[in-house]
Amino acid sequence: MSGEARMTVGAGWLALGLFFLSGCTTVAQVTTWSDESCRQKVKDQLQSILTDEGEQGDIANRLAVNTTVVLATGSLGPRPFGVSSPSGTDYSFFVQRKGEGCLLRLFGRQKGFTRYTNNLTYISTRSLDGCACAE
Predict the structure, then answer these.
(1) Read out DSSP for 86-107?
(2) If you ran DSSP here, which 8-state letter would residue 35 be given?
(3) φ, ψ of residue 111 in degrees (nearest 5)
(4) Nearest by Cα to 52 from 134, 132, 125, 133
C-alpha cells in the first residue's frame, strides 16, 4: 500500500473514531415558553444566528418571530426543527440541554444543491439564558 493510500485509510479511520467518540447528543425542548423573557431570548438568539448566516435583518427578525411562535404554541416534543428563508436557504436547529442551561444549535444549512451539516462542532451555538429545557 502506498503512503498516500495509507494516509487516506488513516484519515477515514480517524473520522470514524471521532464519530463514535463524539457520543450522542440528546435533543431537548424548551419548557419555559410561558416566560416572556425566555420567548424573547429564543427569538433574539434565532435572529442573531440567521443574521450571522447572511440573512437580511428584517427577514431574520420575521423568521425568528414566526419560528418562536410555532415552537411556543405547539407541543412538538424534543426534536430538531427547520427554518426556511425566502433567500432559498433552509436551516436546521435543535435545542440541547447542557447542565442547568439550554443551548440553541445550528447544525445544518442547505441552499439549492449545496448542503452543509456539522453535527460535531456545530455551525453556530447560542446560549438560551433564562430558559429551562428537558430531554
Answers:
(1) TTSEEEEEEEEEETTEEEEEEE
(2) S
(3) -135, 115
(4) 125
Q: Which residue type is seen at 19?
A: F
Q: Tell me the longest C-alpha to C-alpha distance in the chain.
A: 62
Provide the mean pLDDT of the chain: 84
CB-based burial, 18-30: b 16+ in 10 Å, e otherwise: eeeeeeebebbbb
Would you place residue 100 in the very low, low, confident or very high pLDDT band (cuts 50, 70, 90)? confident
Q: What is the pLDDT of residue 12?
A: 45
What's the rounded Cα separation, in Å, for the pair 28 and 4? 43
DSSP E strand stretches across 1-135 = 29-30, 81-84, 89-98, 101-111, 114-117, 124-127, 133-134
- Tell me the whole-structure pTM to 2 decimals: 0.78
Angstrom CA distances, 36 to 13, 42, 82, stand at 47, 10, 22
CB 131 within 8 A of CB 71: no
